[in-house]
DNA sequence: GCGTCCAGGTCTACC
DNA sequence: GGTAGACCTGGACGC
C-alpha cells in the first residue's frame, strides 16, 4: 500500500535524506541517487516491523509498504516519517536569517537544514556513541551488527532497531564479541538498562524545557557521551545553539575557510557566532553544501 | 606480512 | 578547570 504525507513548501527530500550519515546506518538505507530512503519501522509490539520506502513526490512524500496495514499502524508510520524527516520543524526564522547573507542564501533556496533522525532518541543516542573515536566504516559495521543480531525481522526484509529492553537483556559479551564495540560495550549495556528500567527518560529530551547547557550536562551523564556526542544529539532534538565539532568538521572547515590549515575551535566558533541560536545548523549546512549540487 | 597511525572522542587520574 | 594517557576496532599506509 502507499501512504501519502504532505510536506511543507520549503521541504527538500534529497537534502533531508542526505543531510548527514544517518541514512547509511541500518535500519535506514539510501539508494545511490539519494532519491529513495528505506527504513524498517516498528508498528506495534504485537505486529511484525515493516520495511517502508520513502520517495519525494509533488507536494509530499510517498511511503510504500508491502501489503496492507491497519489504521493504527498507518498512523504510526506517518508519525515516524514526520519525525524522522523533521516535517514539523519550524525553520522559517532560520531560513530568514540565512537569506540575509549571500554565502548562506542557498540554504533557504535549497530547503536544507532538516537533519535526518531516528524515530527514537534512544536510537540516535546509541548511534552517536558508535560514531565516537572510530572511522565511519567502523560505525556502520557496529550499527549493522547491532541491528541484524538484536533487531526484529521485518515484513519486506531487514530488521528494526532493537529496543532498550532488548539491548538490556543482551549479555555484555554480545556488545564485545558480536557487535565488537570494544570499550563502548559496558556503556551500551548500562545505558540500555537505565532506559529500559525507566530510570533515564531520553525521549523526554525532545520536549525538555531545560536550557541547552543544562540539557547538555544531562546528556553527558551517559557514559560515552562527551562534548561532541552531546552536541550532536542536541541538534537531533532541535537545539542548534551548539556546534558539535568533530574531526570531520574541523578538517572540512580547514579546507573551506582556513587555506587547508587546522583552525582552533574558538576560531570556528567565532565564524558562526553571528547566527546565535542557529549557529550549529548554519555550520552544518555550510560544511555539507557541496554534498548535493543545486 | 607486519607495525604504526588514526578515525565523525571520552574517561579517569592527577595537578 | 585543565591535561596526559589509556582505550577497542579496523582500514590505510609505509616498509
List the main descriptive attributes of the protein structure presented here:
alpha+beta; TATA-Binding Protein; Endonuclease III, domain 1; 3 domains; 5 strands; DNA-binding
Describe the structure.
The chain has 294 residues and is of the alpha+beta class. It has three domains: 2-88, 2-Layer Sandwich (TATA-Binding Protein); 121-236, Orthogonal Bundle (Endonuclease III, domain 1), CATH 1.10.340.30; 247-291, no CATH class. Helix content is 45%, strand content 10%. The protein contains 14 helices and five strands. A five-stranded antiparallel beta sheet has the order 1-5-4-3-2. The longest helix has 15 residues, at 136-150. The two termini are 32 Å apart. The relative contact order is 0.12. It binds a DNA duplex (15 and 15 nucleotides) through residues 20-21, 128-129, 131-139, 141-142, 176, 180-185, 187, 220, 223-229, 232, 244-251.
What's this model, at a glance?
The protein has 294 residues and is α+β, with helices and mostly antiparallel strands.
**Major sheet: size, sense and barrel closure?**
5 strands, antiparallel
Oligomeric assembly = single chain
Q: Report the uncertain regions.
A: none
Count of the domains: 3
Structural class: alpha+beta
Q: Give the amount of beta strand, in percent.
A: 5-15%
CATH topology of the largest domain: Endonuclease III, domain 1
Please write the string of helix (H) and strand (E) elements: EHEEEEHHHHHHHHHHHHH
Mean pLDDT, as a whole number? 96
How much is the radius of gyration in Å? Answer: 19 Å
Can you tell me the CATH class of the largest domain? Mainly Alpha
Distance, first to last CA: 32 Å
CATH superfamily heading of the largest domain:
Hypothetical protein, domain 2
CATH architecture of the largest domain: Orthogonal Bundle
Percent in helix: 40-55%
**For the largest beta sheet, what order do the strands appear in spatially?**
1-5-4-3-2
Number of DSSP helices? 14
Q: How many β-strand runs?
A: 5
Q: What would the principal axes of the Cα set say about the shape?
A: globular
Amino acid at each position: 500500500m502507499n501512504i501519502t504525507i504532505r510536506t511543507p513548501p520549503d521541504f527538500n527530500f534529497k537534502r533531508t535524506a542526505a543531510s548527514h550519515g544517518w541514512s547509511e546506518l541500518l535500519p535506514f538505507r539510501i539508494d545511490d541517487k539519494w532519491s529513495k530512503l528505506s527504513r524498517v519501522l516498528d508498528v506495534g509490539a504485537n505486529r511484525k516491523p515493516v520495511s517502508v520506502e520513502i520517495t519525494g513526490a509533488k507536494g509530499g512524500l510517498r511511503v510504500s509498504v508491502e501489503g496492507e496495514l491497519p489504521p493504527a499502524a498507518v498512523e504510526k508510520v506517518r508519525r515516524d516519517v514526520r519525525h524522522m524527516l523533521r516535517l514539523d520543524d519550524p525553520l522559517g526564522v532560520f531560513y530568514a536569517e540565512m537569506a540575509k547573507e549571500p554565502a548562506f542564501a542557498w540554504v533557504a533556496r535549497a530547503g536544507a537544514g532538516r537533519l535526518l533522525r531516528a524515530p527514537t532518541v534512544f536510537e540516535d543516542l546509541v548511534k552517536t556513541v558508535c560514531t565516537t573515536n572510530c572511522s565511519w566504516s567502523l560505525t556502520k559495521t557496529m550499527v549493522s551488527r547491532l541491528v541484524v543480531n538484536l533487531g526484529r525481522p521485518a515484513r519486506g526484509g531487514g530488521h528494526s532497531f532493537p529496543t532498550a529492553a532488548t539491548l538490556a537483556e543482551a549479555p555484555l559479551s554480545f556488545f564485545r564479541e558480536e557487535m565488537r564495540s570494544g570499550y563502548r560495550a559496558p556503556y551500551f549495556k548500562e545505558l540500555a538498562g537505565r532506559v529500559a528500567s525507566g530510570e533515564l527518560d531520553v525521549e523526554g529530551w525532545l520536549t525538555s524545557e531545560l536550557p541547552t547547557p543544562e540539557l547538555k550536562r544531562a546528556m553527558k551523564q551517559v557514559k560515552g557521551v562527551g562534548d561532541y556526542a552531546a552536541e550532536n544529539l542536541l541538534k537531533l532534538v532541535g537545539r542548534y545553539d551548539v556546534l558539535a565539532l568533530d574531526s570531520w568538521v574541523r578538517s572540512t572547515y580547514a579546507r573551506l575557510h582556513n587555506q587547508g590549515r587546522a583552525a582552533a575551535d574558538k576560531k570556528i566558533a567565532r565564524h558562526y557566532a553571528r547566527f546565535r541560536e542557529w549557529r550549529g545548523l548554519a555550520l552544518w549546512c555550510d560544511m555539507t553544501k557541496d554534498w548535493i549540487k543545486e
